Hints:
The protein is of the alpha+beta class. It has helices spanning 2-29, 41-66, 72-99, 104-110, 125-135, 172-175, 182-200, 225-238, 260-270, 301-308, 320-329, 359-367, 372-387; strands at 143-146, 158-162, 165-169, 202-203, 212-213, 240-246, 249-254, 276-280, 313-319, 333-339, 342-348, 354-357. It contains 13 helices and twelve strands. The longest helix is centred in the first third of the chain and has 28 residues, at 2-29.
Amino acid sequence: MCKLLDSLQENRSKTKSITKSLLRRICEEGDSLEHHRQIDYDAFLQIQLEILKAIVETEKSITERNKGGSSSENLQIIDCLKERRHILKLLGSAVAWILLEFNRPYIRTLAMGHDPGFITFKKGLSAEVYALKKFHDPKNERTAILHDITHCLRVGDLTVIRPGEAYPIEIKLVIKRRKLDRRKIRQKRKMKILQEYYYKGESDKIHPGYTSLRRIVGKRDRHNWKEVTEVIKKAEKEGYCAQPVEKCLLYAAYTTESQLDRVINSLKKHWKKPFFTFGCLDKHMEGMPPILPLPIFEIPVKFKLKLLLGKVNFCTFLDMNSLCNVLNEKGFDCIVKEEGDAVQINVTRPSGESLMLGDGIIGRLLYECLSVQTVLDYTMDVLKFAAK
């Protein structure tokens, strides 16, 4: 038992050390949604290579541990290593968002794929790393991001980046001259569809039977970063905190799972007969690809670290009925619909245009701390487009 505890403590300490070091470097070199500055491509190449090295080492440790059987002690250590891997890929996602200048349409497009799984024994990894270094050319304002170190880029192997430009590349399709197998043919076809969708802004091939539109507007998304910081700060002092931030949004933070019941009970004080859905930032660890990654939230670095390591938990509660009321006040006709486990809002303008607010925008309210005003802006933009 003592040996297990020592091993767990060693792994947790290593996770904390790696996370703290990489997170601080990303934040020091990084960007934000509100304050854009020149990005140091050299610094971010080194960060990418360090994340890659740490992911490979972690995956090798998991593989070795899997050979050791399914004892409860061994499984605890494997869980600890898997958590480190998730955090590393979340940090990689933060690098991708920064290098891509928060280009959500591009990231959302390339997120439409499956998690590639472990990369350690991937045959083409060495070729991808070689290409990463070759495409890196800061003097000509060019660099690249390796997709496998992220949760968010799941189609292709690399994205070559210039200021305001992004080009996805599939290395396997370039370096292998022999006849392509069915999987590679599907990848090539999907890459072509997604590239067309990104550059044209519209596609009926993404989801057959539906038209997918890429939102391009000049308005900046708004987030409740100040309120997030305040809630976490209060939770650190008092153990938990639950407070409304907008008519339909309540933020909560707590330091132990036992306090979650107190948070749920506090909802009754703020909403009468609430019909709510909620999201916890722990979900970021599971790799929600199109969502703005936690490491680049505009909150103090010390709070980011606590959230990443599970020292503080943060939840967003959204009352769907209240959100409908807000939309109704702005002149929309809204109906809440339940489709299995999913909750959607059908929004209609008096002139007849309609829109279904589903997992995309509601997910951003829950996991990005987005403001309701941005939802209203988004709804208006899409309905205006539909009216043309």
